[in-house]
Amino acid sequence: MADVSSSTNTTPTTTVRPGRFKEFWRYFRENRGAVIGFYVFIFFLIVAIFAPLISPFEPSTQNRGATLVPPAWQDGGSWTYPLGTDPLGRDMLSRLIYGARYSFLVGTIVVILAATGGILTGLIAGFAPRWLDTIIMRIMDIILSIPSLLLALVLVAILGPSLLNAMIAIAIVLQPHYVRLTRAAVMTELSKDYVVSARVAGAKLPRLMFVTVLPNCLAPIIVQAALSFSNAILDVAALGFLGMGAQPPTPEWGTMLAESREFILRAWWVVTFPGVAILTTVLAINLMGDGLRDALDPKLKRS
Amino acid sequence: MNTVVTAQNLARHYEVGGGLFSKPSVVKALSEASFTIEAGKTLAVVGESGCGKSTLARLVTMIEEPTAGTLNIAGKDVTPDNWDTLRDTVQIVFQDPYGSLNLRHRVGAILEEPLKINRPDMSAKERQAKAREMIELVGLRPEHYDRFPHMFSGGQRQRIAVARALMLEPKLLVLDEPVSALDLSIQSQVLNLLLDLQERLDLAYLFISHDLSVVRHVADDVVVMYLGRPVEFGSKEAVFGNPRHPYTKALLSATPSTEPNPEKKRIKLEGELPSPLNIPDGCPFAPRCWKAKSKCREQRPDLMGEHPAACWYPEG
Amino acid sequence: MTLLNIRNLSVDFDTAGGQFRAVDGVDITVNEGDILSIVGESGSGKSVSMLAMMGLLPWTATITADEMSFDGVDLRGMTAKSRRKVIGRDMSMIFQEPMSSLNPCFTVGFQIKESLRIHMKMDRAARHRRAVELLDLVGIPDPEKRLKAFPHQMSGGMSQRVMIAMALACKPRLLIADEPTTALDVTIQAQILDLLTDLQKETGMGLILITHDMGVVAETAQRVQVQYAGQKVEEQEVRKLFAEPHHPYTSALLAALPERATERHLPTIPGVVPGQYDRPEGCLFSPRCRFANDTCRKTDPPVQPPELGLARCHYPVNAKEGVA
C-alpha cells in the first residue's frame, strides 16, 4: 500500500464537514448582541433602499399648517405624522427614513475610499524597505496624532462644506487605521512559509502582494471596515451638526440635529429621533463588528 | 555521474541590531559550507537549531544571496541575475504543512502557480492537465483539485506541498524537515513517497533534518553542522557507523532509540548551544566537548582527513 | 499505592459540526513511583484527558467519568476552589512550549516564588531559599543570578528547566509532562529527560509522560498506554510493548519507525486518524487495519485481558496459544 499512487483517505464519511460559511455563521450566532446588531443593520438597510416606497411624505415637503406637531401618542399629535413634524412642517418619519439613505451612502463610500487607500498603503509599507516603511508609518502617525474631527473640519474648510467633501475628509482621517492594520497583517504573513515558497516559485512583487498575501490579511480588515462604517456615520453626523457636512435641506441625521438645536426645549422630538436613529445604527454596527471579529479571528475560534 | 549542485565555501552573514548610534553586530549564520549533490542522491544536513541548516536552504533555493562562496546549479554559476532562469531547477518543501500552503487558494491554483509564473506560454488547459497528473503522482485523488487546503490532514497537505514543488520538474528538491511535523504513521507514508519519487524522477535531495533515525533511512551522504559550520562530512555508513567528531557522537548517543535498553550509557553534553552572536574562538564545540584541550579553545580546526571532521582529536 | 485512578473517562466537545468525542472511555491508573507514558498521534486525546482531569478545559467540553480520584479524593464535582488546592500542589503539569509557558513580564524568581507563596504559605526568606534550591535541583548554574532573569533571556532548554522547577516547587506527588521535549533540540532533550527521571527517582513521585515519540517512551517509561482516536487501545510494560505489541495499531506504528526499517520502503499505515467527520463504526482502527474483517467494521471490539495488553481489539496480534 506504500506505492506512490496510493490514495490516502478511504475512511467512510459519516457526518459532513460544515462549509466555511456555515461555520462562520455558527460562531457569529454565538454572540447574541452581534445577531441583534445584524438584524437592526438589515432593517435600516431595507429602510434605506425602499425609502421612497415606505415614507409617507417627501422629505422636503413643507406643510406650513402643521409645524412642530408632536408625535402621534402625545397630546395634539396625529397619525398623519407618526413622529411629528419639524419647525418647517416636514414629516419627521419621512426625513428619518431618507436620512438612512444618506447614512448608508456615507458609510459605504467612506469605507471604500479609506479601505482602498489604506490597504494599498499598508501593503506597500509592509513590503517596502525599512526607510520607505518608516516614512509611510511616520506620516500615518502624524495623521493619527491630530484629533480626527478637528482634522476633518480643517479638510472640509479647505475643500468647502458639502456632503461629498465631508466624506473625503473622513475617509482621509480613517485611513491610517487601515494602513496600520494591513501592515501588521502583512508583516505576520510575510514570515510564513507559503510566501517563501511563492518566492521560490519565482513570484514577483505585485503577485506576492495581491495574490499571495493580501487575501490572507482580509479578516481583520473586514472587521475594521464594519467598525469604521459606524465611525463614518458618526463623523458625518458630527460634521453635519457643525454645519460642515450635508447642507440643509438634505435630510441627513446630523444636519437635522443641527437645524433643530433651538427647539430642544420646546419640541423634544425634533432632536431626539435623529439622535436615537444615529445611536441605534452605530450601536448595531459596532455589535455586529464585534461578532465578526469573534467569527473571523482564528485565535478565538478554538474555544 | 551527473552533478546537480556544487557549493564551494558558501557563507551567509547577517547584520543585526545596529540603531542610529550602535554598530550592528554580525551573525555568521553559515560559513564554509562545501558540498556536491548528484542526481538521484540525497545529501542530509543534520544539526540542532541555530546550526545554519535553514540558512543553507535559503541560499540553495535562491531566496538569499550568499555573502561569500560560489554556488553552481545544473552547471551554471548562480548569481542574482540568473536566479529567474534557474528557478525551475530547485524547489523546496517546508516543515510545517499548515503554514506552507496558502489557505485562500484551491489546491489546483496552488499547484498551477509555479507554471503561471515560469511558463507564461502554457495554456490554462495544459496547466490543469499537469496539475491533475501531479495530484495523482503524489497519491491524492482527482476530486482534491478543487478543494481548499484546510480540508486536508497534515500528511495530505505535505503531499500537496511535494506536488507543488515538482510542478516545474526540478532537478533538486530542498526538503526542510519534511516529516518532522507529521504523525508517525503519516511520516512513513511521506518518506516512502519521497523515496519513490526520487527513484522515478532521478531527483537530487538536500534533506535537512534533526531526526537522525529519519536521516539514517533516507540519506546517501551526511553533513553534520554545528553553529553554522560543517563539522563532519561523509557517507551515511561512515558518519553513523564510525562518527569522528565528538559532536556527531554525542548527537547519535542523545537520539532516543526504540530498543528499551536500560544499560545504555549516554554521552551527556554539558551546557547549551552558544548564541550565534558570539561564537567562541577556537573550535565552536569546545565549551561543551568532554575532551577539549587548550589547543581546541585557541585554534579552530578545519575539516580534515579522508572522512573529514573538524576536530583536532577526532574519534576512531 | 494508587495515586491517580480514572475509569471510563469521556470528553465531548461541542463544535460547529455537532458533538465531537475527543476522549472515549479511557482508564488511567498511576501508582506512586510510577512512570506512565501515554503515546499517541495528534488527535488521540492524550492531552485532553489530562486537561480534563485538571479542570482546564473550556466550557464547550462535557466531561464524564465513572471514577476520577486522586489520592482517594474524588475529583468529580469538586468546586473550582478546592480543585485548585490539589492542582499546583499535589499535582502539577509542564507543557510543550517552555517559551510560552512562562510569563514574559515577570522574572523567573517571581514566578517560582508566586506558587510557593500561594500553596506553601512560606515567608519571604524561606521562599527565596527554596527558589534557589529548586533551580539548583534542576541543574541551572548560578541560581541566585538566574532568579533575576526574565524568560526571554533564557534558551528553550533553560526555560524548560525553570518550568520543571516551578512544577516541583510544592513537592507534587504527581507530575504530568505534556510533550516536555518536543520543542527542544536532541542534545537538550536528552538532558531534560535525564533530569525528569532522576527527579522522579529521588522524590518517588508519579510521572505521566505524554509524548508521540516512541524513542522517548522506550528510554524513559516503565508502563506505556497507547491511545488512538480518543481510545486507549493497549497498555503494557514498556519492554513487552516494544517486543510484543498486541494491538495491530501499536504493531504497525512500531514497524513504521524508520529506525526499525529493514528495507528502503517503510511499512506504512494507510489512511489517516479519523477526525470528527469520518468516525467509522465498530473498531476505530478498522479502516486502516490489515487484519480487519466485517466483525471489526460492525461491532465495537472488546478489551482483552491484561496478558494481552488490555488491547481493544477483536483479534489481538502476538497472542500465544492458550491465552486468547
Automatic annotation (TrEMBL), chain A:
Tell me the GO molecular function terms: dipeptide transmembrane transporter activity
User: In its keyword annotation, does this UniProt entry include Transmembrane helix?
Assistant: yes
Where's it found, cell-wise? Cell membrane
Q: Which CDD domains match?
A: TM_PBP2
GO CC terms for this protein?
plasma membrane
Q: Which InterPro entries match?
A: BP-dependent_transpt_permease, MetI-like, MetI-like_sf, OppC_N
Q: Which parts of the sequence belong to the ABC transmembrane type-1 domain?
A: 100-289
UniProt-listed Pfam families: BPD_transp_1, OppC_N
- Family the entry assigns: Belongs to the binding-protein-dependent transport system permease family.
Q: Know the name of this protein? A: Probable dipeptide transport system permease protein
Give the species.
Answer: Maritimibacter alkaliphilus HTCC2654
TrEMBL record, chain B:
CDD domains recorded: ABC_NikE_OppD_transporters
Where located? Cell inner membrane
Q: How does it sit in the membrane?
A: Peripheral membrane protein
Molecular function as annotated in GO:
ATP binding; ATP hydrolysis activity
Q: Which GO terms describe its cellular component?
A: plasma membrane
Q: Which residues cross the membrane?
A: none
Q: Which UniProt keywords apply?
A: ATP-binding, Nucleotide-binding, Transport
The residues covered by the ABC transporter domain are 5-252
Q: What is this protein called?
A: Probable ATP-binding component of ABC dipeptide transporter
The record lists the organism as Maritimibacter alkaliphilus HTCC2654
From TrEMBL, chain C:
The listed locations are:
Cell inner membrane
InterPro entries from the UniProt entry = AAA+_ATPase (IPR003593), ABC_Ni/Peptide_Import (IPR050388), ABC_transporter-like_ATP-bd (IPR003439), ABC_transporter-like_CS (IPR017871), Oligopep_ABC_C (IPR013563), P-loop_NTPase (IPR027417)
Q: Which family does it belong to?
A: Belongs to the ABC transporter superfamily.
Protein source organism: Maritimibacter alkaliphilus HTCC2654
- Give all residue intervals belonging to the ABC transporter domain: 6-254
Which keywords label this protein? ATP-binding, Cell membrane, Membrane, Nucleotide-binding, Transport
Name of this chain's protein: Probable ATP-binding component of ABC transporter
Gene Ontology CC: one annotated term: plasma membrane
| SUPFAM superfamilies in the cross-refs | P-loop containing nucleoside triphosphate hydrolases (SSF52540)
- Keyword Oxidoreductase appears in the UniProt entry: no
Q: What is the lineage of its organism?
A: Bacteria, Pseudomonadati, Pseudomonadota, Alphaproteobacteria, Rhodobacterales
GO MF: ATP binding; ATP hydrolysis activity
Q: In its UniProt record, which GO terms are filed under biological process? A: peptide transport; transmembrane transport
State the source organism's domain of life: Bacteria
Q: Which CDD domains match?
A: ABC_NikE_OppD_transporters
Kindly give the membrane topology term recorded for this protein. Peripheral membrane protein
Write one Pfam family the protein is assigned to.
oligo_HPY
Q: Which PROSITE patterns match?
A: ABC_TRANSPORTER_1 (PS00211), ABC_TRANSPORTER_2 (PS50893)
